[in-house]
Amino acid sequence: MRRMWILGIESSCDETGLALYHDQRGLVAHAVHSQIDLHQAYGGVVPELASRDHVRRIVPLYRQVLADAGIVAADIDAVAYTAGPGLAGALLVGAAFAESVALALGRPAIPIHHLEGHLLSPLLSADPPAYPFVALLVSGGHTQLMRVSAVGEYEMLGETLDDAAGEAFDKTAKLLGLPYPGGPALAALAQQGTPGRVKLPRPMLNSGDLDFSFSGLKTAVLNAVNKGLDEAGRADLAAEFQEAVVDVLVGKSLAALRQTRLKQLVVAGGVGANRRLRERLDLELAQRKGRVFYPELALCTDNGAMIAFAGAQRLAAGLAHPADAHEIAVRPRWPLDTL
Amino acid sequence: MKLLALETSAETASVALLTGDRLLHREGGTPGTHARFVLGWVETLLEEGGCALAEIDGIAFSAGPGSFTGLRLAVSVAQGLAVAADLPLIAVPTLHALAFGRGDGLHLCCMDARMSEVYSQACEVRGDAVIARSEVRVGAPGDLSPPPGEPAQWQACGSGFALPATQSLHWLPTLAGIDASAAPHARDVARLGARLLDAGQTVDAALAAPLYIRDKVAQTTAERLAAGGRA
Lengths: 339, 231
Ligand SMILES: Nc1ncnc2c1ncn2[C@@H]1O[C@H](COP(=O)(O)OP(=O)(O)O)[C@@H](O)[C@H]1O
Ligand SMILES: [Mg+2]
Description:
Chain A has 339 residues and is an alpha/beta fold. Chain A is built from 10 helices and 10 strands. In chain B, strands 6, 7, 8, 9, 10 and 11 form a 6-stranded mixed β-sheet that branches. Chain B has a 5-stranded mixed β-sheet with strand order 3-2-1-4-5, with helices on both faces.
């Protein structure tokens, strides 16, 4: 029986993540360092600072996962790393490190698309979905619906025409004076409010296609904020905003399942941590005899585990494409449907 | 001694392999393309030198100052090779490597730092050693200080001297000569690295870091607000 250790490396934005996946034992070790504290004072991710921090974190995290798994470098069979999309300088740190480890060990390096990592991450859970399924990818940079038939076979069903859902959460949170990153803070404030007291639009809910738009929602929030809000008003606005985003995400996900005639929905990306979204999807899918799958909470944000796993899946499917001549190449912009 | 050296801080990238007295090297590329070549060169040089990575005694990298992305490329490659092959790293200051490449004497090193600034340092090369005669600085080319002591004993070198603002410095003609085409190279990183390795001046991969010099790269929200900007 073939035994394989795959090292996964993620450094596309503000998290450094390393992990070891074993093709029979599953995810054995993973460690993430989040830079949230580093960027907080700047009100958002500063690319140069992010790149600098990846250099500081990558070796200790690498040593930690090897120690946790109880293996040595020579045991590694392949190195998977995020080659894009993301911040060019941040990606380069992980790519250069990964390609170098691979060269030194004489093992293949596998460049992975960050979103492929996210959308396959629910397969890492104890009770995974089976192919094919519909994936709703909702993060700070992306909002898209995809039909996933197998590893490497993704069909784009719809995507946002402007802001991503997470971005809308973050920008709205900023308008409400909440700290960065705004998504979780806004969700917490929403718990104290009641949706419907303020009215916000559900953009493109009935557009007939599977695309999204969230920038208008942000403008509507701005107008409401400008009219002046007391404490209760802020909570109500947060609740209504969350409800509006959730309504649209749920409505379009159900439409995607209808269109593809599939019953399984996979939710990936940071916004997938939103409790209200989970409640609503669970309820709607249960009523339709379908099922929603989420990655484990620890794997919702950026991490190396999903990259190691995507690498393992590609390797097993004969779809790993090592770079020519150990070229270190990153793709800051890389459409998923070109995979 | 066997040592691998990486230099990707400036316009041209280079990699060198020192095995005893033999020095093999590769160089080329344009800014922004270094990442495509360096590892390929590492592999070719090891083949050419008939030596496996495991036989190497250490990896020297040009630590900076220089292009931020370029410095990180060299450090990240060095870290990756080091952890996988269990090797020590040697951080060689880039301006020392630049001076060393000029040979014995006094060298005022100055590299273009973009954003209308230069990195500079006065260095003395004596045999196989480089002695810093001033701190590494980043600043406007017009503020570059003349070297210490007698100007006529100093040579100016580096891309910083190709900038109009340095060329018009009134004291520049008092120096012994100017070579604005001089650039740091991996063969000098290798030679200096060998000396540092002999002296036990190695750094663990986890602590290997670029010498950025320019450390203020963004304004905090509070600083933007204080300057009358928006959050
Ligand atoms: N509970 C939550 N509710 C809504 N949004 C959330 C929640 N938790 C995280 N987010 C959002 O998820 C995004 C981060 O997710 P991530 O997958 O790391 O995105 P990216 O990698 O694109 O930056 C942020 O926009 C954040 O505000
Ligand atoms: Mg992400």
